[in-house]
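@channel anyone free to eyeball this complex?
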Amino acid sequence: MIAPGGTIGILGGGQLGRMLSIAAAQLGFDVCIFTDEPDSPAARVSARTFVANYLDAAALADFARRVDVVTTEFENVPAQTAEALIAAGARVAPSPRALAIAQDRVDEKLFLNSLGIATPRFAAVNSQAELDAALASIGAPALLKTRRLGYDGRGQIRIDTLQDARDAYEKLGAPGILEAWCAFEREISIIAARGADGATAFYDACENEHAGGILSRTILPARVEVQTEHSAREAATAVLSALGYVGVLTIEFFVLPGGALVANEIAPRVHNSGHWTTEGAVTSQFEQHIRAVAGWPLGSTERRCAVEMINLIGNDATQWATLAADTSACLHLYGKRDTRTGRKMGHVTRLG
Amino acid sequence: MIAPGGTIGILGGGQLGRMLSIAAAQLGFDVCIFTDEPDSPAARVSARTFVANYLDAAALADFARRVDVVTTEFENVPAQTAEALIAAGARVAPSPRALAIAQDRVDEKLFLNSLGIATPRFAAVNSQAELDAALASIGAPALLKTRRLGYDGRGQIRIDTLQDARDAYEKLGAPGILEAWCAFEREISIIAARGADGATAFYDACENEHAGGILSRTILPARVEVQTEHSAREAATAVLSALGYVGVLTIEFFVLPGGALVANEIAPRVHNSGHWTTEGAVTSQFEQHIRAVAGWPLGSTERRCAVEMINLIGNDATQWATLAADTSACLHLYGKRDTRTGRKMGHVTRLG
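replying in thread with the prediction:
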């Protein structure tokens, strides 16, 4: 176990890093951020920050020397970064393998399927011809996505016709993945944690609504059957165990009519749909992640009440004064200097 | 109102500054700490820190230029510091007058009495002869305290005999205050807030236990009659209003058998007995204070559950591993490098 006073290293300087850093400080840790972004949201609440390219070997080696463990706030950290840190003697959690699987939509689905977890039908796409063939096999509607580096609905286009497929391929190029469109009833996520001792813990399933590919709202309790939630936990258990995972990990699922689950995506990190845990659970997902990577026992995931989390995206955050006056709203703003369309600027939690 | 992205200046780098800084960050503010302590707990979670003497005029002027408002995490900030900041153009909340009153135990009691709020009988003591006379008038047992700069039971000695008075005066010297010993049934505190718009809000009364002059435990709900709590709020309202106060202010009271209140102390700041609000109230005392000094509307003070807060003092914090494994304990550690007897190292909150 890393004793209080030790230093947690975090790759990434965004809002998840900011909230992780605050949670680490509450447990008595110092935090050192590594980010390529000057003046990042996480840096402003952390003891120290390296601003450098994620492939800057000298900076990574220095960073590795100054921290007791390294974790990540986003899954698109280059695999070489994690490997360089390990080569420099750092403990890295989650593992480079977990990052690598989550970074590649094809590998991710192959991994899930290998554990018996259903995903949408899919095909890897490396050329227009492969896309045409995949579309013929999978059928429309479908989604063409970039194989790597997609998030918040970026890098994906819906395809209904062969012409759509041509246009989409022109925009996204290869390597890509064609996924069957999933006629889901609702979307849920499971926020799961695994400690260094192998213990696991699960938060109640989160019911999520997206708009334009971006999470807009999460509510708890999710409107799903007990058996559906149980299946989601079983899937999460299999994923955590297969990866020998340490930390918080999120799986997004589509819930089909009748309750069957189709896994959409793994995020090897704390997740937007878990922001409700700051007020709504005994231990927040951020503290839980820090506990796990520091080798501490996991905290209680007990939910304290019904809860709703609403994202503030782009100009939504200009309504801060109205939200500040709403005594039912727990307001979180991320300290981002520039408001941009589709950018997550903050969130509001409401307790039931 | 200070918009998110603005900078809150905090005088003091201790645990209260640390928790204020975290609360400010959650609302989207940057925080700039001014402290004379290198590597302070608050600095490590803040965007920027000035390490300088509290009377360093150049540093204060620079600090004043870089922040949108200045507040304090401890009441023993020199009055000249607040005045220098105001002279340099800074808004300071709470006001130098509130600080000055809370810094002087005689002025504090005169102020409370002037509002009709009962305090223990007291007498200013500037010589051994004055102490003897005060003791004859007030009677034993009594407490000799330094007039200024006392906290956590430091600078006060119980007096039962004339010889005690001699010994105590030799240790504490002048200027002092002799206070009648109060045979209280229990101790409570009221955490109150007043916004820049004059709105007030109160948290439920906290019931406090001290050991060796240091707060050891706070529980809610306090075991007092509704009328007693009502009287405490009335007193707090009078204090806030008389000071034109902006921010969170705490008053400690003795509750006498029968329920009558005797005010013990004013703290013009967030308070150890309000730490339960982080998990136990909709808005924490830290966020409430930041809201007030930023000119925002006050948040909800609603209590979410029964709650117990236990301080980790000195070596208590070496039990961190046991506490980390206790899923009923919300653990807070302050990041202090050195453990010393009587030093507040952290606290634990338990939700009922």
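from a first look: Chain B touches chain A through 44 residues (CB under 8 Å).
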